[in-house]
Amino acid sequence: MTATTISARGETLAFPDGFVWGAATAAYQIEGAARDDGRGPSIWDTFSHTPGRTAGGHTGDVACDHYHRYAGDVRMMAELGLGAYRFSVAWPRIQPSGSGPANAAGLDFYDRLVDELLAADIAPYVTLYHWDLPQALEDLGGWTNRDTAYRFADYTQIVHDRLGDRVGTWMTVNEPWVAAVLGYGIGAHAPGRASAAEVFRASHHLLLAHGLGARVLRESGAREIALTLNLAPVITPDQVNDPDLVPSAEDAEAVNRIDCLINRQYLDPALRGSYPAPALAIMDRMGGLDHIRDGDLEAINQPLDLLGINYYTPCVVRSEPGEPANAAYPGSEDIRFSGAHAPTTAMGWAIVPTGLTQLLTRLSRDYPEVGLLVTENGAAFDDVVTGDRVHDTDRTAFFEGHLRAAHAAIEAGSDLRGFLVWSLLDNFEWAEGYDKRFGIVHVDFETQRRLPKDSALWYREVIRHNGLHRERVRRPTLEAVAARAGVSRSTVSRVINGEGTVSDEFRAIVLDAVNELGYVPNSAARSLVTRRTDSIALVVSGSPAGAYPDDPLFSATVRSATRELEDAGKRVTLMLADSAEGRLRVERYAASGHLDGVVLDSTLSSDPLPTALARTGIPVVSLGRPAVSAPTSYADIDNTGGAASAVRHLLARGRRRIAAIAGPPDTIAAQDRLRGYREALRDTGHRSIIAVGDLTLASGADAMRQLLRDDPALDAVFVAGDLMAIGALRVLSESGRRVPDDVAIVGFDDIGAASYTVPALTTVRTPRTDQARAAVRLLLRQIDGGPASSTILPTELVIREST
Ligand code: FCB
After folding, report:
1. What's the pLDDT tens digit per position in 208-239?
2. Exposed/middle/buried for 538, CB within 10 Å: 0-12, 13-18, 19+?
3. In this structure, how many other beta carbons lie within 10 angstroms of the beta carbon of residue 462?
4. Which of 376, 400, 429, 587 is catalytic?
5. Phi, psi at 210, each rounded to 5°
6. 322, 507, 752, 762: most buried by Cβ count inside 10 Å?
7. What distance in Å separates the CA atoms of residue 700 and residue 688, rounded to the nearest whole number?
8. How far apart, in Å, are the Cα atoms of 795 and each of 208, 300, 438, 752?
9. DSSP conformation letters of 409-467
10. How many angstroms is it from 539 CA to the middle of ligand 1?
């Protein structure tokens, strides 16, 4: 099965032939019947029965009572058209005390389940360990005890002996990272232990169990063997919205370290037979390496047919010197784990579908020998039952986004073979108890009634078509609700926002329409009072004509912002606000409701327009950081960091008398560049010598002359703009200074001319088109009701002959 088999069949975004569609569950989360038929206690029984461990003191004693209702549940799966069902076998049903002879009644249950599935033409996918370790083994040390891995191999043999004639696909261990870290590192999951040293022991033994189990399965003739991991692309905050951004060296180190802990600590031993060096160094520091014995890595590195991927949300990190380690990531000192600027699920997990594309393409690139299967992907939302429907539009949108992301990965060559939603049923969500609902089927835990949610009905159609409609599912709009209820949009909006100004009668009519249409107000609708216009103004402000010339990269910036906006279906109006009158015009226009938002190019720190526009309440994003007092969000470039890197480069070249030609002092970018220069010098104790220009070539020449007068012995100049640097180069050559031998020089911006000067100019490249695009994306997100966030893009030092 390759990407070439994907074709656009009519209106469908088709998946490869034979693509497996299914759903997943886990034993302790759904079975209940905790003491039936000889089942022994597991660590989750003990943990959930310990006061204070789970939300509301919930336990899996009854759960979805699937143990007794499995036949009906399988019928429902068949109705939904599932091709595969991933469930886990409860080890304590098979070996109530974790070792010794099999409990026949326990095996019988899975035997019946498998037969029922096969009769319904649903492939059984068996997970052998989904966290319910027999308590008797925990009493001997649990996963910190090496022997547990050998017990797991025995148990695997027992289960395969009974089911192997009918089950083709086997998953050994589910999410060793979660089992080790949450169970042994921070105590949030069973068995509730908290020790940084034990995490790595437990982790290693879970991997060893995988390897030993996989070997048993292979020798017993299993058709497909897999390991299921919780994997997350590790990205910086800026990459959440722009995956192609290149992080700074410090951030790249942070990303790599966390990637080694959460992803490669498992991927590499299982698929390459080695631990990544950074993870090994951390393990060593935390508790030594004596638990890793000779031959272990060979045992873990068994040939695998499939890699199971559980993807929910990316891991967002950046470098932050001084930050203490995150308890879930021993060894993560100097790294900040930040939230993502993205909508979240009821778990608070950021929804980032592109993370799945990144993950899948990366796995197929780095581990090409193994086929990929999404064994879990899904979301908890606060579902509402209306009559016999659950209009879970958010969940449908979540799946749709992730399936599009998966499809994109397949098109890019990723060997993805199937997709299993988490979860079939609302269930016992571990420490969260029953409060967090992940099912595509709603479960009423009082009556055990099953009710397929709208997302399940939608999924059935996806399965039937082996793909998605090219057009996204259209969510019912506020307008549609208003039309159905026969009221105005603002009435609907007031009802949704719980304002008391609507009569009970109209409130009831609106709520009926909301339920009937399955309308789920998003944050935009909650705040929405004006109509969308699809018009955006690109406002250029604050450069009084004649004070200094146009920024050489201005047209590139405007062009890429305009293109990005037009691609998003927006009309763009360019407005100039270079006088008090012009500013007033812009303000009035923004306040009049003619615009969805503004991209603002404002350079002067005293510009009143950012504050005035923010007051109108429409979304505004500035190109560049506005004055501190202005509450608009912005997409800036790292002016301070760029200047500092230029000066550090000069210092590294041995320069000691480094002067600066600064830009106009009333612009924020120039202030930031000057700050970077000063900070880099301050660290070394060298003194600063500063002249000021207005960004023109002539002003650069004047400033250079002045600097040579002030300090004839200077040996380097940092110039806050390339045109000024070109002027300065001229003066240096007129005065007989050789560049770089006598005086080295660095510019800023990397305009086209910088590479043609003699000698070619070393300069700081500013990603201006990226900046414009980022500003537009931030704006579009705000217009869609997302948070008002800002971003700062890194700059890059381009070294040429002038230094
Ligand atoms: C995964 C688990 C699964 C469920 C989902 C939400 O980590 O494998 O059992 O809890 O998260």
Report:
1. 999 999 999 999 999 999 999 999 999 998 88
2. buried
3. 22
4. 376
5. -55, -50
6. 762
7. 17
8. 45, 43, 42, 16
9. HHHTT--EEEEEEE-SB----GGGTTSS---SEEEETTTTEEEE-HHHHHHHHHHHHTE
10. 47
The residues near 771 (Cβ < 8 Å, ≥ 6 apart) are 557, 623, 624, 635, 636, 637, 793
Active-site residue flag, 376: yes
For 651, list phi and psi in degrees, rounded to 5. Answer: -65, -40
Q: How far apart are CA 437 and CA 486, in angstroms?
A: 34
| CA triple 634-637-638, angle to 5 deg | 120
Read off the pTM.
Answer: 0.65
Ligand 1 lined by 310 (C-beta under 6 Å): yes
- Taking only the tens place, the pLDDT of each residue in 142-160 is 999 999 999 999 999 999 9
First-to-last alpha carbon distance for the chain, in angstroms, is 54
pLDDT band (50, 70, 90) for residue 305:
very high
Rounded to an integer, what is the distance from CA 246 to the centroid of its chain? 16
Atom 4 in ligand 1: which residue has the minimum CA distance? 429
Interatomic CA distance for residues 733 and 52, integer angstroms:
76
DSSP state of 754: G
In 3-state terms, what secondary structure has residue 687?
coil
Structural contact between residues 523 and 783, judged by C-beta atoms closer than 8 angstroms = no
State whether the beta carbon of 26 lies less than 6 angstroms from ligand 1: yes
Give the span between the Cα atoms of 181 and 163, in whole angstroms. Answer: 31
CA angle 778/783/785 to nearest 5° reads 100
- Do residues 11 and 154 lie in contact, with contact meaning Cβ atoms separated by under 8 Å? no
DSSP codes of every residue in 340-357? -SS-B-TT--B--THHHH
- Determine whether the shortest distance from the Cβ of 438 to ligand 1 is under 6 A: yes
Provide the token pair at 463.
Answer: 């399965």
* Residue type at position 96: P
> Which DSSP state fits 142?
G
Q: Is omega for the bond preceding 423 within 30 degrees of 0, making it cis? A: yes
Name the 3-class secondary structure at 633.
strand
Residues in contact with 176: Cβ distance below 8 Å, sequence separation at least 6, in sequence order: 203, 206, 207, 210, 229, 266
Q: CA-to-CA distance for 260 and 427, rounded, in angstroms? A: 31
DSSP for residue 549: P
3 state DSSP class of 403 = helix
The Cα–Cα gap between 627 and 642 comes to: 20
pLDDT digits (tens, 9 = 90+) for 311-324: 999 999 999 999 99
Q: Which atom of ligand 1 is nearest to the CA of 438?
A: 6
How many beta carbons lie within 10 A of that of residue 464, not counting itself?
11
Strands 716-719 and 744-749, how do they pair?
parallel
Average pLDDT, the chain: 90
CB distance 376 to ligand 1 below 6 Å:
yes
| Ligand 1 atom nearest residue 347's Cα | 6
375 within ligand 1 shell (Cβ under 6 A): no
Would you give the DSSP letter of residue 263? I
> Which tokens is 165 given?
């004639």
- Stated as kind and residue range, the H or E segment containing 538 is strand 535-541
